[in-house]
Amino acid sequence: MSAATVLPVAGEIGGENLAVRLRGITRSFGRGESKVLALRGIDLDVRQGELMMLVGPSGCGKTTLISVIAAILDADAGDCRVLGHDLMAMRQSAKTTFRRGHIGFVFQSYNLLPSLTATENVAVPLLIRGHGRMAALTAARRVLGEVGLAGRRGGAARPAFRRPAAARRHRPGLGRRSGANRLRRADQRIGS
Questions:
Q1: Cα(74)–Cα(90) distance, rounded to whole angstroms?
Q2: The sheet that has 85-86: what strands, in order across it?
Q3: Residue 9 CB partners (closer than 8 Å, separation 6+)
Q4: Rounded mean pLDDT of 92-107?
Q5: By the 8 A CB rule, do 72 and 100 touch?
Q6: What is the mean pLDDT of residues 45-58?
Q7: Minimal CA–CA distance to 76: which of 43, 34, 44, 40?
């Protein structure tokens, strides 16, 4: 299952309170006879503050669609506006800056750096954004407390629970999507 959570932000798209507006989005992979059309004319509106879940079988385009919305993949055609920004008109460097300031990721796998503590792992995105080390660590401790991992701050970066479902809900990676991020991307299968 894939899900995109949209948090309220200032701004409008086309006079409406939308975080995402897609019109006619297409995306393909490969060339010639091996070309696969992953997205075929997708139209989608996601209002600010709305919880959106994309559900479908493996290979139907969920991850591709979320990757286009998160400015990781470029659409082949169509109109893609996220938080008031026209992603189709943005250069890659601008998309990188946009993602850094507005998009957060919760991955199916942990994607934690094993040599860092949970607090240090959560602080990594803040350090990349230019925050000082002490400010980043302080914010990371606060976020870990918010997701119920205050006791794990100095420990190794591994799941806090033995049950996989609980580990997925409470792992330190959740803290990475915090801060200034306005759009969150989650890509996780049920029961995996």
A1: 10
A2: 36-47, 18-29, 77-82, 85-86
A3: 19, 48, 83, 182
A4: 85
A5: no
A6: 87
A7: 40
d(CA 129, CA 134): 14
169/103 Cα distance (integer angstroms)? 19
CA distance 72 to 67: 5
Exposure string of 88-120, with b = 16+ CB inside 10 Å and e = fewer, is: eebeeeebeebbeebbbbbeeebebeeeebbbb
| Domains and their CATH numbers in the chain | 2-90 (3.40.50.300), 118-187 (no CATH)
Q: What is the distance between the alpha carbons of residues 181 and 171, in angstroms, rounded to a whole number?
A: 18
The CA distance from 136 to 118, in Å, is 13
Mean pLDDT of 38-63: 90
Write out the two tokens for 183: 């759009």
pLDDT tens figures, 155-181: 555 544 444 444 444 444 545 444 444
- Tokens matching residue 68: 């286009």
DSSP strand pairing (77-82 vs 85-86): antiparallel
